[in-house]
Write a structure and sequence with these properties.
With 459 residues, the chain is of the alpha/beta class. Helices cover 31% and strands 22% of the residues. The protein has helices at residues 2-12, 25-30, 34-43, 46-52, 57-62, 74-82, 87-104, 124-136, 176-180, 195-204, 288-291, 309-314, 343-347, 394-406, 428-446; strands spanning 68-72, 112-116, 141-145, 160-161, 185-189, 191-192, 210-214, 221-225, 233-237, 244-248, 254-259, 263-267, 274-279, 301-306, 326-335, 354-364, 384-388, 412-416, 455-458. The strands form 3 sheets. Strands 1-2-3-5-7-9-11-13-14-15-16-17-18-19 form a 14-stranded parallel sheet, covered by helices on one side. It has a 3-stranded parallel sheet with strand order 8-10-12. A two-stranded parallel sheet has the order 4-6. It is globular, with a radius of gyration of 26 Å. The relative contact order is 0.05.
Length: 459
């Protein structure tokens, strides 16, 4: 304790010059102007930033002025994932930390306010205050990530409910209204958003460009329309109550939907260039391509989530995607299912530059069988092929053989054998062994057949 007090005394002592030349680091710091110190603090993770407040009285108040408050609790969440009981003690600690910081915070505005912890509706009182605090500070980016254990959606009735009162605009023009208009992006995970709240977010947050809602209950019919909206990016993921989404006449640039098959109407969205979609059990329910047909002619980036590829792709015919430059497929990988049927989708994209396949593993199996060859088809623009979750199955290899044989302009193949598994802490050592074997498999299979002009990267 004594040492800390001495440091503090030194730091505050501006006029005291040492006769010897080794500059005391604290003196060096105390000569820096506040705004530089604040920007250093802003770039530190929260934990380090709070620790600095012990260094001296000057630091203590400075860090309360940082322009981004990111309460990221990753290490704690890892701990909770392995030892769920620790949540009982960790949750109040987290809440106290955020309360302490928001009470002491001096700056008039903040750019970012981010909560990331396992919190449910029982903490409503505290979270309501934080949301109010952030809005009163004219926050530009507000994020509430309340996933259970930091990784899973909880049952919607247990979710924190987004408070409508903080979205109400008083009759007078000044005050609240101007504060809401600063909000540019809103990310909500495991937060229930009612249709009324959703409507108010759109009408009262005039500056909102990005809206992302994951795992919300209470939302049934989602409507976004009107040329006055500046919304550019909209994402709705695993909100299982949603029955319909209608988006029209807006300047939307990207749209994501993941969840059950629903009614979707998209119309007059001239700037929409990026779509990420996966509907229902297969990922292709409800005629996905028909639903997005209004933007197919100008789409540049398409991500498809496809859960069980074998059954689903065969029967589908794909529309031509004339402007598509990037195609990202997230595919449920079972046993040794062939991936070659995806080439028919790639053939529908004559201007494709980058193809990415992310294999989400259920149960990999290497079977010995002959490599199949899909029909030849020249891909003239394709430059980069990436396979994530490469395991070295015949299916993985034959897909790459297809691209090596058909992509005339190919420059780079990226192989990432890291398992794409859907959990926070997969069993360590066994995981590591599998990745290592996939890596050596990829080397053995691909190095001999990759042309000299193509760069092969195995991560």
């Amino acid at each position: 304790m004594r040492k800390r007090a001495r440091i503090a005394q030194n730091t505050g002592d501006h006029h005291h010059h040492h006769h010897h030349h080794d500059l005391n680091s604290n003196d060096f710091i105390s000569r820096m102007p506040d705004d530089i110190l604040i920007s250093i603090l802003s770039s530190l993770p929260l934990k380090e930033a709070t620790i600095t407040s012990n260094l001296s009285t000057r630091w203590r108040y400075l860090w309360c002025q940082t322009d981004g408050l990111d309460f990221d609790a990753n290490e704690k969440l890892d701990k909770i994932a392995t030892d769920p009981k620790s949540l009982i003690t960790e949750r109040p600690k987290y809440i106290n930390l955020v309360n302490r910081v928001t009470r002491q915070h001096k700056a008039p505005t903040i750019n970012l306010f981010r909560i990331s912890f396992d919190l449910d509706k029982r903490s409503k009182g505290a979270i309501d205050k934080w949301v109010d605090f952030a809005i009163s500070k004219r926050v530009q980016k507000l994020e509430l990530d309340l996933l259970e254990n930091g990784e899973t959606l909880r049952q919607p009735p247990k979710n924190y409910v987004f408070p409508i009162k903080c979205l109400n605009v008083p009759k007078l023009v000044y005050g609240k209204e101007t504060e809401l208009k600063f909000l540019k992006s809103l990310f909500l995970k495991c937060v229930n958003v009612s249709e009324e709240v959703f409507g108010k977010i759109l009408t009262n947050c005039w500056g909102l460009q990005q809206l992302s809602i994951h795992g919300s209950g209470d939302l049934v019919n989602v409507k976004i329309s009107g040329p006055s909206l500046v919304l550019k990016h909209f994402e709705i993921v695993f909100c299982f109550g949603v029955k319909s989404i209608e988006i029209k006449d807006v300047k939307l640039e990207s749209f994501s939907y993941l969840g059950p098959g629903i009614t979707m109407k998209l119309s007059n969205l001239p700037l929409l260039q990026e779509i990420s979609i996966g509907e229902g059990y297969s990922g292709f329910e409800n005629n996905v391509f028909g639903q997005i047909s209004c933007c197919i002619s100008h789409l540049q980036i398409l991500t498809l989530d496809i859960y069980s590829p074998e059954e689903n792709i065969k029967s589908l015919s794909f529309p031509e995607l004339p402007k598509l430059k990037q195609l990202i497929l997230k595919v449920g990988a079972w046993d040794d299912d062939s991936l070659l049927q995806f080439t028919s989708l790639v053939k529908a994209c004559p201007n494709l530059r980058r193809f990415v396949m992310q294999l989400i593993w259920m149960s990999p199996a290497r079977r010995r069988r002959k490599i199949r060859h899909a029909d030849k088809h020249p891909h003239r623009q394709l430059e980069v092929v990436e396979i994530m979750g490469y395991y070295g199955r015949t299916s993985d290899l034959e897909l790459l053989v297809y691209f090596i044989e058909n992509a005339i302009a190919l420059q780079k193949i990226m192989i990432d054998p890291r398992y794409q598994i859907l959990e926070r802490n997969p069993v360590g050592n066994q995981q590591f062994k599998k990745e290592k074997s996939a890596r050596s498999c990829a080397k053995k299979q691909l190095q001999p057949i990759t042309p000299h002009a193509v760069e092969l990267v195995i991560l």
